[in-house]
Amino acid sequence: QVQLVESGGGLVQAGGSLRLSCAAARTIFSPYVMGWYRQAPGKQRELVAMIASGGPTTYADSVKGRFTISRDKNTVYLQMNSLKPEDTAVYYCNAVSAVGAVKYDYWGQGTQVTVSS
Question: Could you tell me the CA-to-CA distances from 71 to 13, 24, 50, 76, 115 in Å, in that order?
Fold first, then answer.
């Protein structure tokens, strides 16, 4: 059962923009944090940006000023501007929810972002 559905990846030239979207299934109970991670070939997965249900955001230093994360209920967006070749990676959506003391961690299937120089 697909819990997080991502869209918006693709190929873009350096300096261009892309917008990623991730919709959480209704079976995921009110995620209190949603975010985006990325993994480039040969590298570990890293946090790109996250947004809490109350609005606070966190960004990786490498994307500050270029990327903007936003959220509308259970859908999270990542607006990526001024893209660089080093932004090339598979981008994964993440959602964290809790029911009582039990924490649930969900991941999307990943969407490829390729930035050409």
Answer: 26, 11, 10, 4, 24
Q: Tokens 């961690």 sit at which residue?
A: 105
The pLDDT profile of the chain, 117 residues, written as one tens digit per residue, is 668 999 999 999 999 999 999 998 877 778 889 999 999 999 999 999 999 988 899 999 999 999 999 999 889 999 999 999 999 999 999 999 888 888 889 999 999 999 999
Query: Cβ(18)–Cβ(87) under 8 Å?
Result: no
Q: DSSP letter string over 49-106?
A: EEEETTS-EEE-GGGTTTEEEEEETTEEEEEE-S--GGG-EEEEEEEEEEETTEEEEE
Instruction: Say which residue the tokens 């972002």 belong to.
Output: 113
Q: What are phi and psi of 62, to 5 degrees?
A: -70, -15
